[in-house]
Amino acid sequence: MEDLKNLTNQAVEKQPEIVKRFNEMIDSQHLSHAYLLTGAGGIGKKDVAQWVAMRLFCIDLQGSMPCGECEECTRIISGQHPDVVEIAPDGQSIKVEQVRFLKAEFSKSGVEGARKVFIIEQANKMTTSAANSLLKFIEEPSGEVTAFLLAENRSLMLPTIVSRTEIIELKPLPKDRLIKELTEQNIAETDARILTRLTNDTSEIQTLVDNNWILDAHKALEKWFITATTGDITAFVDVQTRVMALAKDRFYQEKILDLMMLYAMDLLELKFDQETITYEANRRQLQELADQTNVRQLLAVADVLLPLKHQLSQNLNFQSVVEKATIKICNIFKMRGR
Amino acid sequence: MDKKDLFDQITEVTRNTEDLLNKLHETQSAMVEIMEENAELQIENQHLRERLKQATAAENEGTKNTKYGLSKSLQNLEKLYASGYHVCNEFYGKHRQDEEECAFCLTVIYGDR
Amino acid sequence: MKFTIARNTFIKKLNAVQRAISSKTTIPILTGLKIEAEEDRLILTGSNTDISIETTISTNDEEAHLNIESTGAVVLTARFFGDIVKKLPDNTMLLEVKDGFQTTITSGASEFKINGLDANNFPHLPEVDSQTTITLKADVFSEMINETVIAVSNQESRPILTGIHFTIEGNKLSAVATDSHRLSQRVINLPEPIKMPEDIIIPGKSLLELSRMLDDEIDTITLQISENQALFTFDETLFYSRLLEGLYPDTSRLIPKESSTEMEFEAPELLASIERASLLSHAGRNNVVKLTINAANKQAIISGDSPEVGNVEEEVVTKDIVGEDLEISFNPDYLKDALRSFGHTSIKMAFTSALRPFTLVPTEDQENFIQLITPVRTF
Predict the structure, then answer these.
(1) Is the pTM value of this prediction over 0.80?
(2) Strands of A34-38's sheet, edge to edge?
(3) Residues 350-369 of C with CB under 8 A from B
(4) What CATH number was assigned to the domain covering residues A2-169?
């Protein structure tokens, strides 16, 4: 029960404005037949859709809030409500049988009452023909039907679908809230701060947290950066011995480049006496380094690191790109180590 | 190849096959869609040609009934139906599966007037 | 919840409810059977959302030997619960649900403990309090279903045609089904007129399942309609079916009002001829037979020609032929289905042209039952 309650609150907490908007639409009976909810993963798209379903079905409304505890609410949250039909891609795409099931459900009356809600997750993973075949139902549904199509980005959807739905863009979650959420999942606050600088997407964050990747990456890059900024050319070796093991694929490689960039940004922040930095744990060392170098040098570091992501996207080899950058950084700080 | 690799491989192959099958399904429905669109365009084209004819030959005294007592426009529909597409209100422009006859279409073309 | 019951009665009721339970479902709890014990009765429910079956066993039922010690409800996985109950050793069984929905089933020396689910998560069937209650003879209604369901479409691309369209107006209940290749329509007269006209589409699959449950022991069946479900009640059983939403196409214009050729015959005679002719048409590539009518000679010939296999020709025994000569081709399977639905009776077949649908009606009752078939164009 406890975590079920949490889920109710998530729509309200993550997207309070959207929830308020839906509340008004329901009160004034201006709910449309089809919505396209867009926004990054973990932003609360499904929470919002389920919240609306609960708002419509709840038998114990608390003011304008679903109770989250009645039979209707709990069945919606656990995906067991026969009149709240949920579809998510089975593997790479939404399969032909799934679309068949959806169409059949669209053409039948509700099981328990006249009202039906459809939630289609990652709706962009429908094939063009599948999406087109659903158009008819979205456009002129029979009965009290509300369909939610969820996608990260509206540009991923067919224009025919976009033009027939009301589009609601969900706002990115506030950073503080995300950090709080992560620390609740036993992620150290310093790591949480770094993670939220890398991405807003909770599923990406999960990937980065898995197997302690972020922890290992933080350690490896800390050693690499400190070594490089003392002008010590052994930082070049660190790339092979420490960094490469973490750069499993393009996704991780990009994140490594982002993490490197964040060091350069921290140095600049400190040089200009800014309070918040990413690598709070290394504040003392970074402050010292910032004090000892001039702005020109720090900008040079940023200049070295900035183009790396672009180079990577042009299929240049990750290791050689990073090694080259390492040598350049060492050169900038050559005088300092001696 | 040890057993686990073998197993992984077969899983991989199965997955690939599934993907391929899905793609086939997609391609198939895409093709049907294009055919249907094509049919609709044909109808439209026919209509346009008809209009063109009417416009250029103003002396033409209305639509003459011809074969089976069908008017020109009904003949067009008949032609379209014969080439495998629905002409009825219910499924207009859709491909007739397996060339099965459709009572709705036949009523539109030959029905009582 | 705790009760004892005679196993025979329980199994019989369980079998009825199990018709609605499928092991393939998107909602896990629907693989389950809901058992609910009230003060004076036991209610079993199964549902695949399309149909839901609820049946009641009363404590007054002498054969059931039902004794309810405490009330409550639980959902048990239908497949293995059914298997367990069927294999229990004794004539009676005891079922008890403890905290956390753990369920103990005891019979003779055997005791099973299985995990149940919260019955609150089971779909809630709507209360149907419609003013219109239609009472029908079970055998007549079952016949009506079987006569019309043959023409229901099995293509999901046209969901609305997968149902039978029922309209009730005055004292007439009419059922129509068409897959656009053929059409069946049956009308029955109700003992008294209905106040509010009704218009619903019930999935053919649901109705087939219903007609299988209507055995000789069942005399009458009632139909009630709510906003989202049709409810059929017979004996102690409630049978719910979801409806198909949308507008059913206007089928009345499909039926030709006039005819140019008419032929009368006994259904079994033509059926036998068609069955023989279709032996070849099935073997060939296009499943078509041809009917050639020579009105002057009162002669009707069925022929099938499959270039790869061979050909067949036979003269049909008819009672009468009037009108113009005609050559018409059609899918013999549609005619077979239609003729079978008539049984042993005299039929009138009416044609307007080789291109338009033709109709079959019983000579005795030409108003209330019609089968329509679309010819195949052969040019």
Answers:
(1) no
(2) A84-87, A115-120, A144-151, A34-38, A166-169
(3) 353, 355-357
(4) 3.40.50.300
